[in-house]
What does this fold into?
Amino acid sequence: PQARRQAASRRFRKALRQAARETDAAARAAPASRAVLEFLSGFWGFEAAGMTQAQLEERLREAGLPADACAALREFLESADAVRFAGGRAPEDMLDRARALARRVEEGAA
It folds into this structure.
């Protein structure tokens, strides 16, 4: 699993670099959300994108991710969805929040 996790981390960093090229914070929401879900899929070895948030949180808790990290992930995905589907305002720090989530996942799996 170590090689899979390292590959997921590399792909995640690359996806966020691409998302950072978007000049508008709202335009970064979809690629940031997708990058986080693809990271989780690659890191843990299951398809996160097809799950509801409740299913994803349950799966991550079973994998050993702390409850506060699961809550931060839920908040991140909800804010990204609000931007994507309801025209909400995107936080300027969306990519930083995505990076912080990835670090939490990596640290929680160590």
